[in-house]
From TrEMBL:
Superkingdom of origin: Bacteria
GO molecular function, one term: iron ion binding
Pfam hit, one: Ald_Xan_dh_C
Stated name of the protein: Aromatic aldehyde oxidoreductase molybdenum-binding subunit
Keyword line: Molybdenum, Oxidoreductase
PANTHER family: ALDEHYDE OXIDASE 1-RELATED (PTHR11908:SF132), XANTHINE DEHYDROGENASE (PTHR11908)
Species whose genome carries this gene: Cystobacter fuscus
Residue ranges of every copy of the Aldehyde oxidase/xanthine dehydrogenase a/b hammerhead domain listed in the record: 20-132
InterPro entries: Ald_Oxase/Xan_DH_a/b, Ald_Oxase/Xan_DH_a/b_sf, Ald_Oxase/xanthine_DH-like, AldOxase/xan_DH_MoCoBD1, AldOxase/xan_DH_MoCoBD2, AldOxase/xan_DH_Mopterin-bd_sf
Length: 734
């Protein structure tokens, strides 16, 4: 693995603690008197609970309580995050007897030991009145709702239309018409969902692995009818989030209730199998992409129609056309999405939530069109580049897609590619294919508040709204403060994921860096101004610590606020309420995206037909790179996940009973070391001149966009087969 960058490559500030096991996660929180909880869950796909026998569970030695719907009087739902609420779905288990999906919690068993709680949960007996259920998009009983006709807010979830796509398609010289299917997939962070809850004098403290500590705080306040001031949420470090942990989980209020009823702290750690049926996931989707071009190879029209799953109780919106309408300069575009309501938990966000599969459908169609025209896939993409936003006509804050393609092609050796499918083989008959695809992801930004404190003992503390889930936000913050103050990064202590400090905005959507770093940079600048006022006529070159001592000040503290371009000052009121406040890609004067280009080599063994990916070259345009080491890590992780999405990952649905069959890491296939070859990453590293003063844009999500279609296109080059679904398996290339 290698990478190129021009910025200092400082080590991760949390690396040493992580490798020696000193980093503490939510489930590591141990409190005297801690009780343990375990969930009993529904075993039907839809219906109603008619009886619940808990006697055997209560008879288990050590079991203290079994909470059911009879114990939740007075509690309410926190509401769905995407509908003004705080939870991953509006359905709060145990509030009534209705069963919306398999795996829904029906009881919480609390005991002195984990073993007793687990045994007790296994002894809970339920009977049901069952109703017909549907868990796949094409199953009987699935309901279809055009997203544009739904109550979802507009124009965000309206059809994306510019020009006359259908008219231009009908007269295009060359056309392709494709349908692509994306499977349901689960995020599978290493850290499981967990909650530790404790009450003291009517106040609640919760340790929870979340990307959105304020949603947990305000969500619990709504559930229990409390003031948010009575609740503190700590989520200092996550063992991966990837969108799964972006709101309050359904189990968290149940743990808090158990702690209140028992008068002692309670911990619950969900199993991975439970997470599959309770937490959010990437929904199944289906995409029809129609493209048209003139004889010169200029794309003149595109239509992207998409269906995806949602639950009966929530409308989970995804805007596939938001990205595909802007990948190229196509003057005539029509995007249309439909929601398919199934008997499932509400789906949610996974890395590059809709952009990954949207780009896969679109970029494989683009590749097919290039072949129909007899043009090189790289040259075809370059010829269709744009300098303005194709959907709105506004200027782009920056776009270096052509440079990404040119640099990637040179580094990959694209000029050595033989264009005919099946024309590149090794001596033993192994088929070799080279593929390319581009990707884009909105450059979003949210409001943030940062407090920076320096003491005369030399301590530097930063409190800012954000969450560390392995992406390296602490390192980027420390690097920014260190550069401004002229101190070593390891001396900067960073507090994130703690509602006891400044408001903690949801960290997702690749807006973490672009949100936090400008705010922290402003705080550091404010601090330097204050320190310069202390310098007086004393000697130059004194450290902040020396300046404070000479001035007789024990500490100096400053605060900075930063919001996205065009956002009003009132956005900070929304931030304080724990509600999502990010905007982008459309700003008042421009549109902003991050971009990438991926070049992939696949090899298909002649007898087993096993598909390997020995080499990937990725070039990223994400504005200025502040923390090269964590940026590299983001690229490699995103590429590996893209490889898994293309060749391995699918959550297998059980249409008979609902739920998922391969709900563990033994049967949910993810890439292993043998699947991962040479990964090379290069950054354009050009600051975006408009998005913020540092010129930084998001990176974590955009990396995964384009990886899967580059693999699909490489497989076509190797075999001549156009495969239009994920994942691609051996039987697809036999």
């Amino acid at each position: 693995m290698s990478a190129h960058t021009s910025h200092p490559d400082i080590p991760r500030v949390d690396a040493r603690d992580k490798v020696r096991g000193a980093t503490r996660y939510a489930a590591d929180h141990v409190i005297p008197g801690l009780a343990h909880a375990w969930l009993a869950v529904a075993t039907i796909g839809r219906g109603r609970l008619t009886s619940l026998d808990t006697e055997a569970a209560l008879a288990v030695p050590g079991v203290r309580r079994v909470l059911t719907h009879l114990d939740t009087v007075g509690l309410r739902s926190a509401g769905f995050l995407m509908n003004g609420g705080y939870s991953v779905q509006s359905l709060q288990p145990l509030l009534d007897t209705a069963i919306a999906h398999r795996g829904q919690p029906i009881a919480l068993v609390v005991a002195d030991t984990l073993e007793a709680a687990r045994e007790g949960a296994a002894l809970v007996r339920a009977t049901y009145e069952q109703e017909p259920h549907s868990v796949t998009m094409d199953a009987p009983g699935a309901e279809i709702l055009p997203q544009a006709d739904s109550p979802l807010p507009k124009p965000a979830y309206a059809d994306k239309v510019v020009g006359d796509a259908d008219g231009a398609l009908s007269t295009a010289a060359v056309r392709v018409d494709t349908t692509f299917r994306g499977p349901p997939q689960h995020q599978n962070p290493m850290e499981l969902l967990a909650t530790v809850a404790e009450w003291s004098d009517g106040a609640l403290t919760v340790c929870d692995p979340t990307q959105n500590a304020e949603a947990v705080r305000h969500g619990l306040a709504r559930v229990f009818g409390l003031s948010p001031d009575k609740i503190k949420v700590f989520s200092p470090t996550l063992g991966g989030g990837f969108g799964q942990k972006n709101a309050m989980q359904a189990h968290t209020p149940l743990v808090a209730l158990a702690a209140r009823e028992l008068g002692r702290p309670v911990k619950l750690v969900l199993t991975r199998a439970q997470i599959y049926d309770i937490a959010s996931f990437r929904p199944a989707s289906r995409h029809t992409v129609r493209l048209g071009a003139d004889v010169s190879g200029r794309m003149v029209a595109a239509v992207h129609e998409a269906d995806h799953q949602t639950s009966r109780h929530d409308l989970f919106p995804l805007s596939y056309a938001e990205v595909t309408s802007r990948l190229y300069g196509i003057a005539n575009f029509r995007g249309h999405e439909r929601l398919i309501r199934n008997d499932i938990q509400t789906p949610g966000y996974a890395r590059a939530p809709f952009e990954h599969i949207a780009a896969c459908a679109f970029e494989t169609a683009v590749d097919e069109l290039a072949y129909e025209l007899g043009q090189d896939p790289v040259a075809f993409r370059i010829a269709n580049d744009t300098s303005v936003d194709a959907l709105s006509g506004q200027p782009l804050s920056s776009r270096h897609v052509v440079e990404c393609l040119n640099r990637g092609a040179a580094r990959f050796g694209w000029e050595k590619r033989s264009p005919a499918p099946g024309s590149m083989t090794l001596a033993d008959g192994t088929l070799v294919g080279w593929g390319v695809a581009i990707g884009a992801y909105k450059a979003a930004t949210a409001p943030a508040i940062a407090r920076l404190r320096v003491t005369d003992a030399g301590a530097i503390h930063v409190s800012v709204g954000g969450h560390e889930m392995g992406q390296g936000i602490r390192t980027a913050i420390a690097a920014t403060v260190a550069a401004e103050l002229g101190v070593p990064p390891e001396t900067v202590n960073v507090s994130v994921g703690n509602t006891g400090g400044v408001p903690q905005h949801l960290t997702a959507g690749s807006w973490g860096t672009a949100t936090v770093l400008p705010t922290v940079h402003q705080a550091a600048s404010n601090l330097m101004k204050e320190l310069r006022q202390l310098e007086g006529n004393g000697p130059a070159g004194r450290t902040p610590q020396q300046l404070l001592r000479d001035a007789g000040k024990p500490f100096l503290e400053v605060e900075a606020r930063h919001r996205a371009p065009g956002q009003p000052e009132a956005i900070f009121d929304r931030l304080s309420q724990g509600l999502p406040s990010a905007v982008g890609p459309v700003y008042p004067d421009y549109v902003s995206f991050s971009y990438c280009a991926h070049f992939v080599e696949v090899r298909i063994e002649p007898r087993t037909r096993r598909i390997r990916v020995p080499r990937v070259v990725s070039v990223l345009d994400c504005g200025r790179v502040i923390s090269p080491r964590t940026a590299r890590s983001q690229v490699f992780g995103g590429v590996i996940w893209g490889l898994g999405a293309a060749l391995r990952e699918e959550s297998e649905v059980d249409p008979r009973y609902g739920g998922f069959l391969n709900a563990d890491l033994a049967e949910y296939a993810i890439p292993v070391h043998a699947d991962i070859g040479s990964l090379e990453a290069e950054f354009i590293d050009e600051p975006d001149p408009l998005i913020n003063e540092l010129g930084v844009k998001g990176l974590g999500e955009v990396v995964m966009v384009g990886v899967a279609p580059a693999i699909v296109n490489a497989i076509h080059h190797a075999t001549g087969r156009r495969i239009r679904h994920l994942p691609i398996r051996i039987e697809d290339v036999l």
